[in-house]
Every structure is written in structure tokens, then in C-alpha cells.
Automatic annotation (TrEMBL):
Subcellular localization(s) per the UniProt record: Cell membrane
Organism listed in the record: Candidatus Pelethenecus faecipullorum
Membrane topology note: Peripheral membrane protein
Keywords, in A-Z order: Amino-acid transport, ATP-binding, Cell membrane, Membrane, Nucleotide-binding, Transport
Protein name: Amino acid ABC transporter ATP-binding protein
Length: 284
């Protein structure tokens, strides 16, 4: 469903993602774990281009969402000796000019593609990002009406069905300010689901919640997983990741240092950094 090839992301001179290759299959639940600063959230945000990659390829359902070799060519150029490898330097510079021109053309056509792909990839953030000036129901119906051109009655009916599913139907007419943190996050999940996405991306959805509110959000995510939704989740909830995941990716220093089943990662990790990370977080 999603394929990533040699994905790189730089912020200035800082390399945050260093050539990631990964496939996410339809119906899979993939948890991404790792220390802060390991590139987890950046990788997730690159999947639907909330962060623009520096280079690499992202395919969604077989179609290219992003494709650029610019950063990779720059890196290759730095590794060459301009005095001893003049022909190689000249060839890469020529290819780099062509890649930059291709990038410019791609960015011009990106807006139309993004609207289409983002309807298929729902995203839920750490801090809810709900609209405070709208009611709960209006938060959910806005995007289907605006982007899918759904009529208001249909949008409201679907929104109420989703609110019923997560136990928030009685809150439909309230302002988000009157919701608890857990309720706001459930609203954020419903808002994403209202677009009927094929994939749900979760960026540490419980990290901003009080401990007693975490379970209500995790229960909703688990029910989505059990329904067959494709899910990619960045999380610090190790027990939850072990329980619901088909695969777990451990990120360290901008790369996927280890991946495997929950049993392989949590019970028999091979990588020394995976072992160190888990020994710290599971002991706390």
C-alpha cells in the first residue's frame, strides 16, 4: 500500500532521515518506536508530505506520491574528489541540475495530488488540532463537505455514526473547549475517519494526555485495528504496541535499526540499541 525507497530528510545540515526503505501492507498495523529525536515523527509526516522529503521515493497504492534524487546526488558529489574524478563530478552535476528542474515542476503540480492522497491518509496529531471556533459536529463535517462535496445532511449522519462509535454522540453540539483531552483526541480521530481514509497515521496520539485518559484513546485505535484499518502509529506505549501491532519498527539516528514482529522486538531484540532503549523504557 505504501512503499518508501531511500527516503532522506535534511533540516539544513542536520540529517534526520538517512535512506529509509520500508513497505506498509494493506490491513497492517505498524508501530514505530524509538527515543526522542530518532526521526519517528518526521518519517510519519513525510508519508503524506506534511514534511517534504529531501530525496527518495514514496509510492502510495503503486502510484508515485514523491520522487526525487536531489539530496542523494548532492551527497554523492561531496564524496568525490573534484581533481581526481572530474568526469564523475561533471556527470553528477549535470544530473543534479536535471533533478532540481524536475523537483520544481513536481512542486507546481503537487497541490492537486496532495488533496487526493490526503483524503486517503488520515492523520492524528499529538495535540488534537481541532478547530476551537466550531462545534464537535462541525469539526467533523467540514472536510467532507468542503473537499468531498458531500451534502450537509449526509455528512452529519455519517459524523453522528462515528461519534456514536467512539462514545461522543452526546457531545455533538458542544464546543471542543468543553471536552477533556481524551475526548478531544477521540474527536480528532473521528474527524480523520470522516474522510473515509484507507490508512490512518497516528503521531504519538496519547503523549499530551493525562494518564487516566490514555486508555479511552487506545481503545478506539485498537477497535480500528481490529476492523482491518491500515495503521501506522508512532507511540511510546510499549505494551499497546506489542498488543496491536503486526510489525514494530525501531528507529535510531534516522534509520530503521531493527524491525520484526512484536515478539521479536520486545522479547528477543537483536540490535544493541534496541536492547538499550527497551531496557530503559520498560524499566521506568
Amino acid at each position: 500500500m505504501i512503499e518508501v525507497q531511500n527516503l532522506c530528510k535534511n533540516f539544513g545540515e542536520l540529517e534526520v532521515l538517512k535512506g529509509i526503505n520500508q513497505k506498509i501492507y494493506k490491513g497492517e498495523v505498524v508501530s514505530i518506536i524509538g527515543a526522542s529525536g530518532s526521526g519517528k515523527s518526521t518519517f510519519l509526516r513525510c508519508l503524506n508530505l506534511l514534511e517534504m522529503p529531501s530525496s527518495g521515493t514514496i509510492l502510495f497504492e503503486g502510484s508515485p506520491l514523491y520522487d526525487s534524487k536531489t539530496a542523494l546526488l548532492k551527497q554523492q558529489l561531496l564524496q568525490l574528489d573534484p581533481k581526481k574524478q572530474k568526469e564523475d563530478v561533471a556527470a553528477i552535476k549535470k544530473e543534479l541540475v536535471a533533478s532540481k528542474a524536475s523537483d520544481r515542476l513536481y512542486r507546481k503540480s503537487l497541490d492537486k495530488k496532495l488533496n487526493f492522497y490526503r483524503q486517503k491518509m488520515g492523520m492524528v496529531f499529538q495535540h488534537f488540532n481541532v478547530f476551537p471556533n466550531m462545534s464537535v459536529l462541525e469539526n467533523i463535517t467540514l472536510a467532507p463537505i468542503q473537499t468531498k462535496k458531500m451534502d450537509q445532511e449526509t455528512a452529519q449522519t455519517k459524523a453522528k455514526e462515528l461519534l456514536q462509535r467512539v462514545g461522543l454522540l452526546e457531545k455533538a453540539d458542544l464546543s471542543p473547549a468543553k471536552l477533556s483531552g481524551g475526548q478531544k483526541q477521540r474527536l480528532a480521530i473521528v474527524r480523520a475517519l470522516a474522510m473515509m481514509p484507507d490508512v490512518m497515521l497516528f503521531d504519538e496520539p496519547t503523549s499530551a494526555l493525562d494518564p487516566e485518559m490514555v486508555k479511552e484513546v487506545l481503545d478506539v485505535i485498537q477497535s480500528l485495528a481490529q476492523s482491518g484499518m491500515t495503521i501506522v502509529i508512532v507511540t511510546h506505549e510499549m505494551a499497546f504496541a506489542k498488543k496491536i501491532s503486526d510489525r514494530v519498527l525501531f528507529m535510531d539516528g534516522g534509520v530503521i535499526a531493527e524491525e520484526g514482529t512484536p515478539q521479536e522486538i520486545f522479547e528477543n531484540p537483536k540490535n544493541i540499541r534496541t536492547k538499550e532503549f527497551l531496557s530503559k523504557v520498560l524499566a521506568s
